Structures are given as structure tokens and as C-alpha cells.
Fold:
Amino acid sequence: MNESDLDGFIVVTPKSKRSARSRKYTHGKHAAAAGGLYPVRSHSTKPLILTIERYISEITSKQTTLTKSKFFSALDIQALEEFAPEEIVCYGIGSFSSSISQWQLALILVLNRNLHAPIHAFDPMATADDIDIMRHFNISPIAENEQAKRKASKRTLFYMPHCEQFLYENAVAANWSVEQLPQVMFVGNHFSSYQNSQTCQTFAKNSPHIKQVLEYLTCIDFPHETLLGLKHCPYAFSDMCIQYVRSVDINRIF
Structure:
């Protein structure tokens, strides 16, 4: 899929880091371009196997860096472990030719060493190489663009780093009931960051469900990326947190 086929969205990262991650999901007139099955592998003289192996090696190396870092030691995952997701759904992790995407994939793989949940993933930028890499790490590709409107049938962790506002809204709306909302947890950008970046009226119009849930969210911030101990921050986890509504707060919303 060409990037020209996709509508843009703003990633909550420093401006200099937005390039490759700035066009991923669509809605409206271009939605069909991002929906449906993943692209098939095109004919190329590029040594595909060597490329895939290199990306797998880079992702594996980033897992090692994460596990040994002060960043991961400082990351509070108790809520994730207590939630004990029965499945993990990843949206927006991009193509693994991107170092940011590699870091984000590496993190969910490291987290899942404690969670032991099946992982499913979709990104409209994913290539045939990316699908092979997903499968190498035992991730099941989602065959179509759900626009994050998945209704959780079991305890579900939505892993959505740097996604568009409307995707978070879709995921919350799809699970909008007193029974469903306690079944979902989000790892992604602070919902409040979207509220703070626009007028109250615009935010309420674009994200009515997030607006209602915002004051009842429990948020656990990610540590700063400088704790990774790298010369340059990858900006893969900026503004990210763990977000969920506690069972005791559900009845205050509905």
C-alpha cells in the first residue's frame, strides 16, 4: 500500500519524528484503501530474507536493551499483571523498517513474557515482510482494518502507541457498557493529551465517549525514555501510559 493512499494523522511525538508514522489509518473516502487484506509480496531483486532477518535481529536486540534498562525497571506493570489480559490487540505499530516501530513491538513482546496472552495486530502500513516478522514472533495478523472498533469478547489489552484520537474513541465506544468497559485496558497515549490540544467543544464532538470516561481513568505514566540509557531517545514511548477504568468507578460513568 502506498502512503499516498492514506489520510494523515498527527502522532503525539516531537515534530522531527513524525515522518514515517504520520499516515496510517483512514476513515471517510479513503477507508477502502487501508481496509481488506494485507498486501502480497511484490517481485523484487531485494534480498528479502536477509532484510527480514535483519529486522528480527534488531527487534530482538531492542528486547534485550529494554529488559536490562532502568526504563523497564521503572515501568509499573502491576496493573497489567493484575488485569491478566486474555488477548492483546495491537493497532498502530507501523512497519518494522522503522526503528520506532521496532521499539514498540519489542516492548509488547517483553511485557507479554509476564502476561502470556495471544497477540493480534493490524497496521495498514504493514508489508508482506512485516507480516512474516509478526508471525516469527507468534503474532497473528488481523486480516482487515477494524478501525479499532473491536468489541472485546474477553479481557483485552489494547496496545495502541501513538494512534490517532478517533481510533481510541472507536475502541472505547465499541466497549461502551457497564459490562464491557472493565474488560478493556489501554497502553497508548494519554487521552487527556488530545483534550488539551483542542477546544472543549471540538474534543466533545470528536470523542464523546473518551470525554465521559476521562475523569474516571486510572493512568500509570511510562518512565522517561532517557532511562533506556541510549545516546538518542527513540521517541517510541513519548506521552504513553497505561489507562483503564477501575471496577469501582464504572457505576459513576453509566
Q: What stands out?
A: Residues 48-67 form the longest helix (20 residues). The mean pLDDT is 86.
